[in-house]
Design brief:
Elements lengths: L4 E4 L5 H12 L5 H11 L5 E8 L2 E11 L7 E9 L8 H15 L5 E3 L5 H9 L18 H12 L1
Helix pairs in contact: 1-2
Length: 159
């Protein structure tokens, strides 16, 4: 088990978070975009972004938010959990999830949820920390920006 410190994310974590997003999720975004999102999210009381620091370096992060529905008690939902590959299976993800569980308890929530899709590693991890699989739902996506306008926007930005 690594001796880590867990603390709130700050805008200066954008570079490390962008790198984790790329290596863990295959999602790339400019660091400026990640920083802009961080600056917004860390100010919101209904969102929590925590980072794990080991030997002065950020090695993981977790992002969770309020999940309020009209048909059940409030919960917290883990939106993202990313742990540097070399630091996995050493208690880092578990510690970050426990910090979110504490936030949920302090907020009067009855549960913490996470959607992990088809990732066997993520499914195994959440099962190992005592989470139960509930509903197998498909996620649907609809862009609200026309593909042509997204293309034109990229063209204008890149000349």
């Amino acid at each position: 088990m690594l001796k880590i410190s867990i603390c709130p994310a700050v805008p200066e974590d954008a570079q490390a978070i962008a790198e984790l997003n790329e290596s863990c999720f295959g999602q790339s975004a400019p660091v400026s975009t990640v920083e802009k999102q961080l600056r917004t999210l860390i100010l919101r009381a209904d969102e929590k972004l925590l980072v794990a620091v080991y030997r002065g370096r950020m090695i993981a992060y977790i992002h969770a938010r309020d999940d309020l529905r009209t048909y059940r008690a409030p919960r917290k939902t883990i939106v993202s959990l990313a742990v540097e590959k070399s630091c996995r299976r050493q208690g880092v993800g578990r510690a970050l999830c426990e910090a979110i569980e504490q936030w949920a308890k302090q907020s009067g929530c009855d549960a913490v949820t996470a959607s992990v899709g088809s990732s066997k590693a993520a499914q195994s991890f959440f099962a190992s920390i005592g989470c139960e699989e509930r509903l197998n739902r498909k996620q649907y996506f609809k862009s609200v920006v026309e593909p042509r306008s997204m293309f034109m926007e990229r063209l204008e930005k890149n000349g």
